[in-house]
Amino acid sequence: MRKFIAVLMCGLFYMSSYATEVGDTTVSELLDEARTSLKRAYEVQADKKAKYEFNRAKSFFEIAQEQTSKLNLKVGKAAALESIEWSIKAISKSISGGAK
């Protein structure tokens, strides 16, 4: 019985995170984009040149992952979007020369 419930919960999580659309984009797509944005920010050394913005992006990404794992998809989507925005700010600041 426990095994059945575990499989059922995994299936529900999979369906909700990949099939449930919040707006036009699924939460899992936003998490992937946030992860990619953080990677791009790291590649332009935003972790050194734009520490505040990079750390904010990283924090929001962690919140998005945690909330999505708890099936709180609305908050997960909002946090993923914030992570993407802060990653873009970090990339922009890093490319333009660092602290202003």
What does this structure look like?
- By secondary structure, this protein is mainly alpha-helical.
- The protein has one domain.
- The chain is built from five helices and two strands; from the N terminus they run H-E-E-H-H-H-H.
- A two-stranded antiparallel sheet has the order 1-2.
- Helix 2 packs antiparallel against helix 4 (51-69), helix 2 packs parallel to helix 5 (73-95) and helix 4 (51-69) packs antiparallel against helix 5 (73-95).
- It is elongated, with a radius of gyration of 16 Å.
In short:
The chain has helices spanning 2-18, 27-43, 46-49, 51-69, 73-95; strands at residues 21-22, 25-26. The chain has 100 residues and is mainly α.
What's the topology here?
Blueprint: H1 2-18, E1 21-22, E2 25-26, H2 27-43, H3 46-49, H4 51-69, H5 73-95
Antiparallel strand pairs: 1-2
Please count the beta strands (DSSP E, at least 2 residues each): 2
Strand content: under 5%
> How many separate domains make up the residues?
1
* Order of secondary-structure elements: HEEHHHH
Outline type: elongated
